[in-house]
Amino acid sequence: MTIDRHALGFGSGERAIYAADPWTTRGRLYPESSSPTRSEFQRDRDRIVHTTAFRRLKHKTQVFIGPDGDHYRTRLTHTIEVAQIARALARALKLDEDLAEGVALVHDFGHTPFGHTGEDALHEVLERFGGFDHNAQSLRIVTKLERRYAEFDGLNLTWETLEGLVKHNGPLLTPDGEGTRGPVPQPILDYCEIHDLELRSFASLEAQVAAIADDIAYNTHDIDDGLRSGYLTFEMLEDIPFLAGLMREVRDRYPHLEASRFTHEIMRRQITRMVEDVISVSQERLRELRPQSATDIRRADRVIATFSESMAETDRLIKAMLFKRIYRHPEIMRIRASAAAIVTDLFHAYMADPGLMQGHYWVDCIPQLGEAARARHVGDYLAGMTDTYALKTHGRLFDHTPDLR
């Protein structure tokens, strides 16, 4: 596929007819007066950046546990990279850049300490109480758990930003009301009872570019961090034709390049080719759909911002390599088991004595709550922890804390 460069929105400031319009937003759950200096999506983006949840991302694991080194990605640096790519895609497709960036910045708010390991452990202990889902937890954070404003809990984000947070990976319900990826988490269903996010439809194109930007970012930086850690080698990358081609290209142009620069040249080309692929596919699908509004994007029968078939196969091969070589590496699995034990220990300790949850605003009321409500509060508290705080707290409450190095 090729890119129609005349249709790109670089520097034009023009918003396409199918872009989300901040001036005609569906509004907020709690009505607020408009700002004379910022659009509604700008305000959402700014509120997200100023949250406690955003700051905590700097000490939450992406893949490698914090003590492994200062140069590995954290949830925060990953989030910033996703936001950069999402904004680039939004600008090229003439979308609302602030909405795309806002969805990208908020998409990982609900992640636990220790990455997906912590999420799996928390889901296991909460399974009989409805389980744990980081996307649903993100919604809880921005609609309830952030307690900053005088007139409401949460951030009171616009409908479009909340829709993007919940549905950036596609509809959650089929037209018949069945879950597209299993049962819809209860916190999402509960919120939709008071503020319907239309779970049967796709999200805006802004949310879609945020979702594909997430794939592009972690496919690239997990390779970068894998090479830095030694779990990956350049020889392993040769098994993927796309990456092998990039390495040949760099070697042909820079035959004597040092390893660190060689890695960066591969990664920057990977991001560029993937971004250009998404732009090309999106333009083609927009020409076919001919949407006249953002509503037409939501009502479409397929995602618009996605990879071509060949790039989707590359994406699959990269994920399979990362899973085999890094995510399931014996040393990583050893560390994951220790991290899971920390989360599980803390959950049971807080369930037995909620008073141990220092600073939790519900702590005085929790002993009077039923077991399910108590477990959800404990889950909220644990999910909000950073890696460093979880380690420190476990060391304070238990005689032995597993070594995560």
Automatic annotation (TrEMBL):
GO biological process terms held by the UniProt record: dGTP catabolic process
Would you indicate the residue range of the signal peptide? none
* Gene3D superfamilies named among the record's database cross-references: Hypothetical protein af1432
**Boundaries of each HD domain copy?**
75-219
**Sorted UniProt keywords:** Hydrolase
Task: List the Pfam families.
Answer: HD (PF01966), HD_assoc (PF13286)
> Which GO terms of the molecular function aspect are on file?
dGTPase activity
Q: Which family does it belong to?
A: Belongs to the dGTPase family. Type 2 subfamily.
The protein depicted here goes by the name Deoxyguanosinetriphosphate triphosphohydrolase-like protein
What species was this sequence derived from? Metarhizobium album
